[in-house]
Design a protein that fits this description.
With 119 residues, the chain is α+β, with helices and mostly antiparallel strands. 16% of the residues lie in helices and 35% in strands. About 12% of the residues have low confidence.
Length: 119
């Protein structure tokens, strides 16, 4: 029946929209959770840094990893719910992105949340 065809079409389009909703993260910045970088320490330049990830394009990101003071250029790919970063120096890091695309989590328990837009 026409109802069945419309239902299947609607369900398929809806499922595909959900699968791709976090695909392009261009312009988004994720900030590390407060305190996950530990305490600042004398002689340790990155100690206390909670980390940040800035998605500069649909495939590129500038990353300062937790506990680091060096920004690294990485590429990333989204295959919801997984975001895989490939970086020249630190290698590969796989994260899980939340359903609403607002947080990134690592298997090690690190969390990055989307930064509020700047005025």
């Amino acid at each position: 029946s026409i109802f069945t065809i419309l239902f299947v079409l609607f369900f398929t389009v809806g499922a595909n929209a959900n699968a791709n909703r976090c695909e392009d993260l261009t312009g988004k910045t994720f900030i590390g959770a407060d305190g996950q970088g530990g305490e600042p320490a004398e002689g340790c330049e990155g100690c206390g840094n909670d980390g940040a990830i800035e998605m500069t394009s649909a495939t590129d990101a500038s990353v300062v990893w937790v506990g680091s003071d060096v920004m690294e250029n990485c590429t990333y790919a989204v295959r919801f719910p997984r975001v895989t970063f490939t970086c020249q120096f630190s290698g590969t890091e796989k994260m899980t992105i939340s359903k609403n695309c607002s947080t990134l989590n690592t298997k090690r328990g690190l969390k990055f949340s989307i930064a509020a837009p700047q005025p």
